[in-house]
Amino acid sequence: MASKGLIIGIVVLAVIVVGVVAIMQFGSQDTQDTDIVNADGIVVGTVYPDGTIVCTEEGKICPDGTVVGRVAPDCEFARCPNQTSQETPQEPQPFVKEFVIEADDGGFYLNGADIGSISASAREALKITFNVRTTNVYYGGLQFKGCDLDTGKVSSGGSTTVEFSATNTCTITSYWPSSSRVKDNLQVIVG
Fold it and tell me: Which CATH number fits domain 96-190: 2.60.120.10, 3.40.50.2300, 2.60.40.420, 1.10.357.10?
């Protein structure tokens, strides 16, 4: 009888050991948090073992000025108010490279330095403001032509702004407007 009790005790102990090992082996798989990662590879939320989803606290400003946050289950930004499902997100505005260039009968100047060229990337939007100096300028002012633009006459002390997309390297030339006499060239290098 003692051996029968010993065998039952060993079997019970073996079942307990197997149960503990099984719990440790398989029970631990569900105790890890899982990150929610968006298409850009950015962690935007966490899924906890109990199924709770918590999104990062970020905001997106909508066109009407309201702010929306991320929402479960995928932690993407909520739809903006008054936005229908047919609306497509606005395209990002192209980067505009701006220059303020002074000019006189002797040349073109950027930050006080005489320049012969400016550079831009292909298809980059350019915005150039030409400020005609009040000294060393013929009484008729200057005119700027080239890169598919013509400013017309810009008086001494006056300014004009031009905007265009750079597709190829081109040259902007300053002239005396009354006689079309060339005064200087400014190359727009596209690369």
Answer: 2.60.40.420
